[in-house]
């Protein structure tokens, strides 16, 4: 079972492992599917084993702001906080590609939390990482110019070729497509990038 790849799994007692294996429900979900909406109360927690899930917030009349992207073998803190507290989720989760993983319901998670210190440690370590990244996001939005944030975002991508539309990048950075297009043109004139339809090529100097 792919759940065994999660760091906490090997520390579970044989009884807890059997419990998790019997209660975990495998799922596959197609690209661009909403897993839960901002304002929902989550009934299950997703243990992601393949694909990516984007978490974002949106106010009425305001562009989306991406909070973070959930990667394989991670647990979503927004999903977790909503389920554990039974309060509404502060953001929306949408699949960026086809995903697969396992769902555990509230009672199963409660059993893990009360019986496994290693699972609690795993869960709180994710909260620590996400809080740090969200603090950086707030700092970037409040104090850094958008063109600086855009260039930093481009430099952080793994490949020199970024196959994303201006609209998709705007969603990542919490602004509009028109603004991103204008800033990218400016970066192209400075020799930082080369623009093609649906593609940005990062130029090395």
Q: Radius of gyration in whole Å, from Cα? A: 19 Å
Strands ordered across the widest β-sheet: 2-6-4-5
Fourth-level CATH superfamily of the largest domain: Jelly Rolls
Number of domains: 2
Number of strands: 10
Largest sheet report:
4 strands, antiparallel
Q: What percentage of amino acids are in beta strands?
A: 15-25%
Secondary-structure topology with pairs:
Blueprint: H1 14-23, E1 25-29, E2 34-36, E3 44-50, E4 53-57, E5 65-70, H2 77-85, E6 92-95, E7 99-105, H3 106-115, H4 117-143, H5 146-156, E8 161-162, H6 166-173, H7 177-189, E9 193-196, E10 199-202
Antiparallel strand pairs: 1-7, 2-6, 3-7, 4-5, 4-6, 8-10, 9-10
Index terms:
single chain; 205 residues; alpha+beta; Jelly Rolls; Arc Repressor Mutant, subunit A; 4-stranded antiparallel β-sheet; 10 strands
Task: Write structural notes for this entry.
- This protein is an alpha+beta fold.
- The chain has two domains: 2-142, Jelly Rolls, CATH 2.60.120; 145-202, Winged helix-like DNA-binding domain superfamily/Winged helix DNA-binding domain (Arc Repressor Mutant, subunit A), CATH 1.10.10.
- The chain contains seven helices and ten strands.
- It is elongated and about 60 Å long.
- It starts with 13 loop residues before the first helix and ends with a strand.
């Amino acid at each position: 079972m792919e759940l065994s790849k999660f760091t906490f799994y090997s520390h579970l007692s044989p009884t807890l492992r059997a419990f998790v294996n019997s209660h975990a429900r495998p799922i596959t979900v197609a690209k661009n599917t909403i897993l839960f909406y901002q304002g929902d109360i989550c009934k299950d927690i997703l243990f992601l084993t393949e694909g990516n899930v984007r978490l974002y917030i949106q106010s009425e009349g305001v562009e989306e702001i991406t909070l973070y992207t959930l990667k394989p073998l991670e647990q979503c803190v927004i999903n977790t906080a909503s389920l554990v507290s039974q309060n509404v989720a502060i953001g929306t989760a949408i699949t960026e590609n086809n995903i697969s993983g396992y769902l555990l319901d509230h009672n199963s998670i409660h059993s893990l939390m009360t019986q496994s210190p290693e699972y609690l440690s795993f869960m709180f370590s994710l909260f620590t990482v996400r809080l740090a990244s969200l603090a950086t996001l707030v700092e970037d939005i409040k104090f850094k110019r958008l063109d600086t944030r855009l260039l930093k975002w481009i430099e952080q991508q793994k490949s020199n070729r970024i196959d994303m539309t201006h609209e998709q990048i705007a969603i990542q950075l919490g602004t509009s497509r028109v603004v991103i297009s204008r800033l990218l043109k400016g970066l192209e004139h400075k020799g930082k990038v080369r623009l093609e339809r649906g593609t940005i090529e990062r130029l090395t100097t």
